Amino acid sequence: MPTQHFPRAFRILGQMRSADWIFILVIFVLFLLGLSAIYSVELSQDTASLLQVKKQVAAGLVGVVLFLVLALSNFKLLQNYSLALYVACVLLLVGVLFFGSTIRGSTGWFVVGGISLQPVEFMKVSLVIALAAYFSRRTARPFQARHLYESGLIMLLPVVLVLLQPDLGSASVLVGAWLVVLVCAGLPWRFLFGLAGALAVLFLMSWQFLFADYQRARILSFLDPSLDPLGQGYNVTQAIIAIGSGGLFGSGLGFGTQSQLKFLPESQTDFIFAVIAEELGFFGVCILLAAFAVLFVRLRKQVLFSRDDFTSFILLGAGAVFFSQFLVNVGMNLGLFPVTGIGLPFVSYGGSSLLAMFVLAGIIESIIIRRSLSHAPSDVVS
CB count, 10 Å around CB of 216? Predict the structure, then answer.
């Protein structure tokens, strides 16, 4: 190796030594749990090709590369490209409405040569960056009504495009990320009532003009499962049965009756939590919940240590995406929330979602590394 490459190698080594390896380990554990559940579900399929497992592994490898590239880069450069990333993702959302493929009732995928891309997953990342850039430039001033309107427009444009697909679950994640950043940016309490009214109007308009019939059925079945006991109500019922039958250590991978006998629909995506609960039992669920708990605790720690607004809002937005998807997915499986098609971060099957989660994780790790190096002795940083 030429001698000029040694300083760069030492610098990369120093960066990786400053990484939060507990955070990385948690992501690895979640990915392995998801991969195990996807493998188990595919055992019950008619084909033995394990295509979904192979696709998830491929997406995971690409995600790891993106994670490393972002972790070893300067995350603050994202502030300069926030507008370009936002516009690019909005254009993708517009394009998918005209040229996308319809899967499970939603026109939200570009499918080329057997590879599918879901733009809304990358919109989640872009929106977090855009909101962080917007509010970091305005926190020196008192919060004003125009900050609510301007940030609301930043959020509303992609939300409307996502609702047109229609994809209620992803739209709710985008709104949730905006609300978390908004409140932490200093939203006065007097604005909350008007905001609640505006969101109620948006929901009613979406119900009337944007929601598909199956989405209305999901919400109505959540409110009254007896309305569709063999349809949307059936899905949640089977998930609850699967969770309850897991016992202490579960039935074992590949031996869950609900997932293997295909009683549990969308078991590799929406209801993967139920698969883990049935086949790995209470023990597996504890590992899953503990991993997410550690992830959220590590994120909270980084928010408390943040020294600038852009960093704080990036962490808050990313945390809001992780937590809202975790909460809604687990809530769906337990019958606490209507089924909205939200996957479990790093666990559920889906290449686009997995890549987006790894991108957010890479940005978070970049923040951690930069903070650690800023406190390191000069001979280590150089």
Answer: 14
